[in-house]
Amino acid sequence: MEIETSARLHLSLIDLNGSEGRIDGGIGITLKNPSLILECDFNDSQTEILFEDTRYSYVDEYKSKILTACNNMQEYLGINNSYRFRVKKIYPIHHGLGLGTQLLLSTGQLVAKINGVDLDVFEIAKIVQRGGTSGIGVHSFNHGGLIIDGGHKKNIKKDFLPSSASHVAPPPLLVRYDFPEDWNILIATPNFNQGVSGSREVNIFQEYSPINLHDVERICYITLMKLMPAVLEKDIVSFSDAINKIQTIGFKKIERNLQSQKVNNIIEYMLDNGIEGAGMSSFGPTCFGITDTNVKSMKKDLQDLMGNDSFIKITNGKNEGSKIR
Predict the structure, then answer these.
(1) Are 137 and 131 in contact (CB under 8 A)?
(2) What is the C-alpha to C-alpha distance for residues 209 and 250, in angstroms, rounded to an integer?
(3) What is the pTM of this model?
């Protein structure tokens, strides 16, 4: 049995002020690529994890997340089986593409299904402890498309924390729209890892929150009155303008300011060379550009700018969730 899911862009958190009784909230886009394919079968001896591609430097962390999710599921289900997990396709963790959530959810779903148990994704997310801040990864896994979630009540989540350190249930899905399939998405990850995770990520949330209420109000206004109708009307000019504005305010501005100037140079290069909307996903370092024009020449130009070891890919939005087979 195997499951296939994919990366997501996290455009922004909405409310790290909380004066109206909720915090967090997120905006994101599900991507067709890069993707994760994870296979699971019963094993006679102990649980083992195999990789078809060992190029990545995070193999130990991948294994740790798979085992953690597997153990959490077995404890929840009251079982004690052994499995052989085979990672057939994967992409880097801590690069702003949401691999951690997809890996945990995929493992959880496989363990449930192979044992003949049907659990919805929301329940699995609680078991494997994801979605405690942003719900974009959970809802993308479930539905695909452009996702906006509603954050958490402050009487349930009492502090500003990233998903990795928050064990509350995932936030509710507010809206889910098909992302226009003829809009190209250019993914550009520079050849250095300056993503944020672990204690450093927790410290940043604690140090910079609460953010200014005016920024929260501005993000909400742009999202409701520009970004959302632009997707429905397939108006890439308005959508891109909304993205560009959201990238400069609130917690996203903080995330951008904490990154290397190389990241901002990549984004500025895209905007200066015909890409309508551009930004950084999550804490980076992955950058993205959105356009309805051909981006093959831009891909080559970016490769020259960023160096041969950088990861550059042309993809599109994905309007369906994970698939298990």
Answers:
(1) yes
(2) 10
(3) 0.94
